[in-house]
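Action item from last week, closing it out:
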Amino acid sequence: MAKQQSFSDKLKKKKKNELLTVKLIKAVKSAKGSYKFNEKFVKVEDISKMADIK
């Protein structure tokens, strides 16, 4: 059987994602007084929207 779809055809079908992936790091103070850093990846539309993330 002939190949129905090539790799380049698959790439053309994929939608371009308009969101940016950013690594968000938060510092949280524990009860003992030390700091713990939580990090996660967040998708945002624009870099200026980073101040709105909680």
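Closing note: The mean pLDDT is 84.
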